[in-house]
Each structure stands twice: as C-alpha cells, then as structure tokens.
Specification:
- The protein is 46% helix and 11% strand.
- The protein has 463 residues and is mostly helical.
- Helix 11 packs across helix 12, helix 15 packs across helix 17 and helix 16 packs across helix 17.
- The N and C termini lie far apart (81 Å).
Amino acid sequence: MSVKVRFAPSPTGVLHIGSVRTALFNWLFARHNNGKFLLRIEDTDKLRSTKENINSIFEILEWLNINWDEEPVIQSSRLERHKELALELVERGKAYFCYCTPEELASKKELSIKEGRSYKYDRKCRDFKAKRSNIPAAIRLKSEIPGSTIVHDIVQGRVEIENSQLDDLVLLRSDGTPTYMLSVVADDHDMGITHVIRGDDHLTNTFRQIQIYKAFGWDIPQFAHIPLIYGPDGLKLSKRHGASSAQDYRQLGYLPEAISNYLLRLGWSHGDDEIISKSDAIKWFDLNSVGKSPARFDIAKLQNLNAHYIRERSNESLLELIKEFSCKSISEDSKNRILKGMNSLKERARTLKELAQAAEIYISEPLEFEESCKKYASPYHLDLLKEIVEIVENYQQIDEQTLCDRVKVLAKEKNTKLVEIAQSIRGALCGKLVSPSVFEIMEILGKTETIKRLQRYIATFAK
C-alpha cells in the first residue's frame, strides 16, 4: 500500500506553530515511506476563512520547504459531493432526517445540565420512516449502539470507547451545509488518505468518524494522534506565551531550518541527536518514536538552534536576509563592511533580528548612545579617546592587530586596563558596549570613518 497523508489547516487565522509541526510530521512520514503529502484547505467556515490566510498557509509551508505533491484540495469546492453522500446514507438506511428544531434541542440540553447529566441527542427522529415535506431537516448518522469502537492508534496505542457514549451526530445541517465530521471523512476517503496524523485533541472525533467510515463501508485509515505543544507553564501554547504562529517566529528572525529542526524534536527523538538535517530527518523519521506526553516549548532551545543555523549560513545569504530586519538603508559601502564583519557578527546573534541590529554599526554612526556608554564619557576617558584619534591619524591604513598592539602600549603608559580603553572606543563607535572586537570594527570602518565617529563622540560629551 502506497502511503498518502494530508495536512488540512483551516484558514480562519494564522498558522499555529503546533499546526506547522503536524504538517512537518506528515511530510516527513510521506517522504520516509516514498509516499505522497497532500494539502487540503478546510475553508467551509465562510465567516472567518480568508484568502489572505490561505495565501499565508502556502507561504509558510513554502518557506519551510514543506512541499506538497498534488494540487491543493479546497474543501468548499466539494460541498455538493458531501451533500450527496449524506443523502446516500439516508437511502441506505444508515442515516435519517432529524426534524428537531434548534430551540427544542437547546431546551433538552439545558435540562440535562440542570439534572447534572452530559447531553446526548435522544434519537427522537431515528425511527421516522418517511420524510416530512416542507419542514427543514438535518441528517443524522445512525451510529452503532451496542458494542464499542476501537482505535489502534500508532502513537496512543489501543484506545476504546463504548458506543453508548456516542450520539447520532449531524452529517448535514438543516440549512443544507455539511458538518466537519462528514466533510473530513469524505475528503480523506476521496483523496485516498492511508494515514491520518494530527493532534491528539482530535482523538474524540476519531471515534465518531470511524462510525461514518463503517456506515459507508469504506477502508479506515490508520490514525496517529500526536500530543499537543504546551508552554512552559504546562498550558496549551498560545498568545499568552508570546509568539504562537509560524509567521510570528519568522518575523522575529528565526530561520526555517531552525524552526523545522526544533519542531521535529518536540515530541520525537532519535537518540541524543539535537541538530538534525532535513535529509537525516527523512531517513530516520517514524511514528513509533513519537512520545505520548505533551511537549513543552522552550524558547531558549529554539534560540540556541537558530544561533547554530545562523553560523552555518553563508555571509552573503545572511546579508540578504537581514535587509528586512534593518531599520536603516544599506548602501553598497555598508554591504561591503557588513560582509567583512559578518563572521564576528553572526557568532553572537541568536536571531536575524539581533544580527541586523548588530550590523547597524557598519551602516551609520550612532545617533544615540546607551546609558552604559556614559560611564566612558568622563573627561578622563575623553582624553584617552583624543589620544586614540592621534594614533589613528598617524597610520595611512589601520588594521586590527596593529591597533590592538598600539593601544596595549597606551594602556601601559596610562597605567590603565586595555578593556577600559577598548570600552571607551566601543561606546564612541557603536553607541553600545556589546560588539565584536573593537579593533576589528575600526579596521572595517576604516581610518576616516573611525576618526569621524570618535571626534563626534568627544564633541557630544565635552559640552
């Protein structure tokens, strides 16, 4: 049997990072088994589904290099097929028309709550023989009453529920629109899906959906329900934990390979391996290594992975990527400076956003200075900087090692520490006290720009 899986997001909002992990697991499972990964957009909620959200789903999957194998299925285009299937089940005696009004059902539900019972439809219309004309009717499944429904879940193991706990679920509403339960089963069957890999919050739906498969006499796919992603506080990951959508993390400056690697390790493992390439992930991935317990999102681990992949990227690639995160226009001269300093810059950066901010030292002189710099703006430190200006002026060209050696001599002459002078220079050149080697920065900026920045700093604080 050829493996065929699907990712079926709803475009009612942005793509949650947990949904991205579901897509990744499906994609890896398909690639590992030389199968197909399909995409279905479940857009039947017309009030909340938007074209913008659909395009965002495509964009995020393409950014993560999660490619699909066939034309995406748009669920709303299949509504007539879903209606036909509901009517077919009525004709076969597997479903029935329900004439209960919303008010009547609400009243019964309210009564059950008052009596402390869980609400379940009482099957009032199950045995009506003839369709009542001119009365709006829903279509309900004649679910099996005796016995139990069993799911042999690849991740969760054997899970069983008594059929008496299931009600006759609605397949088609009285306004003629199909329900999620029917649409999902119909689409999975028609698309030839062999394995349904999704979050374990769908496990209760699976028992009901199996009843629909049985009613049609269709082959039931294998199910794998993966645990949800929780925040550090043990609650389901959401906006209250900060970023929760894939787009959020992209805008914060995370690389797609870091996101993929991190999500892969959330609930799945391969020994002690932490950094896993896409090719190795395809080779190693199997559902038997997915854990049953919820995974906790650890932003520090993601940042460490992202820092690793930033260091792995070429300098030219990073230069292109940081353009969208930079607040300043990058000239050709600035590009050359950034490329020269990129090896040092990327050693410190955890995100592209941080890298772009760090690279600003090569784009323009600081207009503002962090409060910490003012410690090095005393008359004593300004006099030291005046001597640095004289030193730089004496060289036709400046280089890192020569400057470092000369400033060491100055520090000895002034009976002060090298770091004291270096921090003074750093504050003047960068406007902050955290950066790569200040002597490397001076070499990259060049003689003219270095002197210009030092003199401006001296003039600013000498007032």
